[in-house]
Amino acid sequence: MLNLQITPQQKAYELIDSGDGEKFERFGPYTFVRPEPQAMWFKRLSEEEWQKADAIYARSGRDGQWVFNTKLPASWTIELCGLKLIIKPTSFKHLGVFPEQMSNWQWFGDLIKKSKREISVLNLFGYTGAASLFAAKCGAEVCHVDASKKAVEWGKENAVASGLQDKKIRWIVDDALKFTAREIRRGRKYDAIIMDPPVYGHGPSGESWKLEKDFYLLMKNCRELLSDQPLFILLNGYVMGYSAISYQNALQSVVDNKKGNMEIGELTIKEEKSERLLPAGIFVRWSNC
Fold first, then answer.
1. pLDDT tens digits, one per residue of 42-83
2. Contact 135, 107 (CB under 8 A)
3. Residue 169's beta-bridge partner residues?
4. How far apart, in whole angstroms, are the C-alpha atoms of residue 183 and residue 82?
5. Neighbour-count burial for 125-138, b at 16+ CB within 10 Å, e otherwise
6. What gap in Å lies between CA 71 and CA 80, rounded to an integer?
7. Which residues of 246-263 are buried (b: 16+ CB within 10 A; e: fewer)?
8. Residue 61 CB contacts under 8 Å (≥ 6 apart), including other chains
9. What pTM did the predictor assign?
């Protein structure tokens, strides 16, 4: 049965409206319009209201750029689930955080707290570190891996902003496949794994990542990295065309015959002034509880 997770309401974030292939959001004091292929319906608000956004990401073929109606600071900080996270518009439309992931943070945060032991977490494709910081905040020892040096530096800045710079977090710039293979040779084990694999990507030394080609190898490596007492595994997917059932089957092969609970679902964001839900990705998660 599909589990629908609705993003917890936070003062710092709001989905104002969506539709016609776009979403209208607020991050702190500023509003943004960004492309959203899943929004296949009509907008509730008028086009005039949408055009009042502080920044609009305008598509031009496969590329795009920000059009600013307001002079924004280079960056600012918002608070989500007790984390202080730095927001800044990037050339590829992202702002530094995916609010829909808050449901997952709360899920694994509760597991870490209830475990009553120090949990080692491997976060692959960790981006700017929100999941790593939340896990560390809940008491875990974290290894954060991303191929982008800029993303990892951003994660370290988020750690300082959140007052978590002294937590046990290893910040690693590396290719996910190469890193997991080396960790296996080193004999490292992890009690929990978080994964956000993209469809395409490049490692810091130009390594090529293709989900259809490399995903199986990554799952194989993750199976070998699991400790004898694993707590959880979280696998996220953002790409249209891939089924949560496919991800579930892949994750089932990782946990093998271990006892535990598996659930699949969709992450969604509720519009602030309607009951409409915006799909924001699929997830598969397993825990031994």
1. 999 999 999 999 999 998 766 789 999 999 999 999 999 999
2. no
3. 142
4. 31
5. bbbbbbbbbbbbbb
6. 24
7. ebbebbeebbeeeeeeeb
8. none
9. 0.95
